[in-house]
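User: Please predict the structure of the protein below. I'd like the answer in structure-token form so I can feed it into my own downstream comparison script.

Assistant: Understood. Taking the following sequence of 196 residues as input:
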Amino acid sequence: RIFSRNRIMNELLTDQVYEGVDFVINPIIADFEDCIFKSCLFAKADLSKLTFTNCTFENCDLSAVKLTQTALQECEFIDCKMLGIAFEACSDFLFQINCQSCILNFSSFYKLDLTLSQFHQCQFKKTDFTEANLSTVFLSECDLAGATFESTNLQKTDFSSALNYTLNPDKNKIAGAVFSKEGIAGLLSSYKIKIV
């Protein structure tokens, strides 16, 4: 660690590739920029107060990782296991994640601004989006079974290829959102009506 003006600053590591590293056993206290993490283990690791800028995570396990005041800026996650992560604990400054084929079940995005983020073929089973801002986000081929949408900004959100979502239009902002005909039942389930 580097000390500057009575404040601890992390060492900055750039353009590194980490493959098969267990960051639970071998924690690194540093900030990362333009780094690639392949098949690394972060499950239940404490990554609090670290910064990841323009980093790529491929086939990593980040389940239940601790992210208190962690900065995730323009980070890409591909084929990652990301169960039970409290993303709302992250720093919201320039927060942006792009996830492809990731499992984000039981995670929480409470009150988080996701407008710069992208999700493709991800699982969000029982994930909490309460009071989050997903306006203009395209949830491309994402499975939202049991996900919670409560006071969520879904204006212009694209659900056209999303699966298994249920949300109450009266309790969320949905103006301009796009839904498929097959997904209409998920909008009406709170009204306890039968669709035939």
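That's the full token string. The first strand starts at residue 2 and ends at 4.
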